[in-house]
Amino acid sequence: MTRKFRLRDLFTLMARGSEAASTAPASASGCGAACSCSTPEDSGHSVLDKTVDRRRAMGMLFGGAAAAATATKSAASVTQTEPEKDEKLLAWEEQLKGNFRLMTERERAETIDRLEQLTLIRHGVDVRIRDAGAIPGVLYGYAFNISRCKGYRNCVEACIKENNLDRKTGTQYIRIFEMEGGQVTFEDGDAEYFHQVPAEGHFYMGTQCFQCANPPCVDVCPVGATWQEPDGITVVDYDWCIGCRYCEAACPYWARRFNWSEPEVPAEEINPNQHYLGNRLRPKGAVEKCTFCIQRSRQGQLPACAEACPTGARVFGNLLDPNSEIRYVLEHKRVFRLKEDLGTEPKFWYYMD
Amino acid sequence: MDFLRFLRGALGAATTGGRTYHLWMGVLTFIIMVGGYAYSVQLREGLIVTGMSDHVSWGLYISNFTFLVGLAAAAVMLVLPAYVLKDVDFSRAVLIGEGVAVAALTMCLCFVVVDLGGPQNMWHLVPVLGYFNWPRSMLAWDVLVLNGYLALNLLIPLYILYQHYHGREPQRRKYVPFVYLSVFWAVSIHMVTAFLLAGLPARPFWNTGLLGPRFLASAFAAGPAFIIVTLHFIRRMTTYRIANETLSKLAMIATVAAQVNLIMLGSEIFKEFYFPTHHSESARYLFFGLHEHNALVPWIWTSISMNVLATIVLTLHPLRRDQRLLYPACLLLFVAVWMEKGIGLIIPGFIPSPLGEIVEYMPTWVELAVTAGIWSLGLFVFTALVRVALAVETGSVRHPGAPIMQD
Questions:
Q1: Cross-chain residue pair B201–A342, CB shorter than 8 Å
Q2: Category of A292 on φ-ψ map: left (φ > 0), alpha (ψ -120 to 50) or beta
Q3: Engineering a disulfide at B333: which of A176, A342, B252, B310 sits with its beta carbon 3.0 to 4.6 angstroms away?
Q4: Into which CATH architecture does domain A140-351 fall?
Q5: Could you give the dihedral angle defined by the CA atoms of residues A191, B115, B47 and B381, in that order, rounded to the nearest 10 degrees?
Q6: What is the CATH number for B214?
Q7: Cα dihedral sign for B121, B123, B124, B130?
Q8: Angle subtended at Cα B399 by Cα B396 and Cα B403, rounded to the nearest 5 degrees
């Protein structure tokens, strides 16, 4: 991929300079997916100091008593005392926590512990939240076979269940467009079709987050609540998001979703196998998006959509592995991407048999 | 100690007045409270109570925000000649202009806050405490320039009024550098807000180099128009004298800006419709409707008609000089620009969606009530500021030891 001059790069350079001065870790945004960005572990103690300072300062701002409780509480088993009070305390500590990227290992473990307890108190479900980082040498890519897809939308259903998507407003990451033959114009496509498929004279194209290598949604975030991970997945820190929805406006593929109200998932349908940056239960007022099922892919599994597809139209894998199926598709099929002219470099290709 | 006395005097001036004044402030307070209630509903239920959706993810709030940034920037049109060019004519109007800027910025900040999904996380924006994504995010730039501009427009008039309160002449070397700064700053707040939208390749409707200049032109039309209307009221309701010359110069500024604005609008319309591409779909939706979706068509044509009519009245000298026509024309221009630079600019950016889907937008009662509440708050702030400024300037609030002002 050739690099073009962009004013944005200049800003990114400036940002690197100022971050180096303040010893904050470099962020993954703005750089290519393949570059090795420093992980939070690299930045060590300066980061620890920073987050501790922040928490103390917030405590002073918003009430001494609760902050004192924050400082003294740590080992006390929360589930043993009155749940009402514990929920308030846990929620307050959650409110004061920092950006996931700037947290130390210990802080990450603590917030995950709190989130698991809160889920138990609020939903009565025992969940396991991981924070597994990117696997070295892995860059995820996706290919979609438009001659195979028949529009059954099993992928959509699997995605909803796997990712604990809000059932009340019917949030969906994947959209399957029923397209008229002879053209690839989404304006004439229909994503709300409700009839027997496949329909005569039509073909089907699925969209979701394309995990762009040059994502326009990341740079615009005013608080750095969304970034690209070293394995190429763009994630959101749901608790750090302020809900301005600038990223939603910036996405050329309409891939981001907002929690307009408190998301609802029936307790018996909550997927307990969760990731901090993936399918954990989202708060009201935060943005979310497809993460290639980060809770699955980082465990070596296929994303739920790829696994659910009955026609084999979905291919997922490691772009850096020359023997992977995705590499085979890219090398042997005629592939194309959406809106190549924007230079967003999606890691999601369409192809035909 | 003196400063406290000044503040007490100012508070006194802002809270005393005739029946009309109290009625006006009372009505505003009532609307603010209704808005506050509506916002509490939004806080409890989430933004689901608004008309926004994942398709149209910004609505009435951000529309008002972009318009009001322009109104705030327009205060510079008075500041520049009054302080820098020593145009004595304008000095009386300039405090009003800065009052407009402060009120508009207050409204801007409120509109951004009510649009947030997680206002409890706002501290994430505070540098050091949170994570301020500057200089990458244009929104971070906007936070910076808006707050800086607010500070400038509070401090400059505060210094001048405080000196007048003591019966002293303000020292030019102490405030003129800041005046220069605020002139550049005013342009920057509007350009940055335009860049915030123009920098998105996902939205062809905004992704144009003309957006920034168009913002400026429309702001320099609507801003002075608003100030002319305000000065008209001040002349009628108070003893504060404002020369006819001031009004006619302001009208001239509004006229030229309105003409430039129409030229730019024409240029945009030509580009969109001479050879319409997929990138012209939003403009087609706005001006003519798209596949039976045409909610904004009457809105934008009403705005353009009002805009053209007001510009014609302002352009013809005999009409503009007739005060019975000048005030309605200015009011018309102000409303027309509000319609165009607000809803007429933000909503079509989202329709159709980047994947070609059409979902229309209609504000709900919550949005309307919150919006009315914030506008009332702005008018409340503006009225109070102007009242204090006029009280100091006319000498009714002054330091006991101050010499009598020679007016």
A1: yes
A2: left
A3: B310
A4: 2-Layer Sandwich (3.30)
A5: -150
A6: 1.20.1630.10
A7: negative
A8: 85
Q: Where in chain A is the domain with CATH 3.30.70.20?
A: 140-351
B137 lies within 8 A of chain A by CB: yes
∠ CA B307-B309-B314, nearest 5°, is 95
Best residue in A260, A338, A344 for a mutation probing chain B (most B CBs within 10 Å): A260
pLDDT at B172: 85
Q: Is B97 inside a domain boundary?
A: yes
DSSP label of B290 = B
Mean pLDDT of chain B: 92
In angstroms, how far is CA B346 from the centroid of its own chain? 16
Residues of B within 8 A of A240 (CB-CB) are 121, 124, 131
Does B80 map to a domain?
A: yes
CB A280 within 8 A of CB A232: no
Of B46, B48, B136, the CB nearest to A29: B136
Q: pLDDT tens across A299-342, in order?
A: 999 999 999 999 999 999 999 999 999 999 999 999 999 999 99
For residues B245 and B123, which has the higher predicted lDDT (pLDDT)? B123
pLDDT digits (tens, 9 = 90+) for A211-254: 999 999 999 999 999 999 999 999 999 999 999 999 999 999 99
Number of compact structural domains in chain B: 1
Parts of chain A with a pLDDT under 70: 1-82
Q: Measuring CA to CA, which residue among A100, A129, A96 is closest to residue A28?
A: A100
**Rounded (10°) CA dihedral A294, A296, A300, A305:** -100
End-to-end Cα distance, chain A: 26
Q: For the complex shown, is ipTM > 0.85?
A: yes
| Separation in Å, CA of A341 to nearest CA in chain B | 10
Question: Which residue in the block uniquely carries the two structure tokens 């994503």?
Answer: A191
Q: Per the domain annotation, does B397 fall within a domain?
A: no
Q: How far is A130 from chain B (nearest CA, A)?
A: 24
- Give me the domain span that covers residue B21: 2-392
What is the average pLDDT across B119-128?
Answer: 94
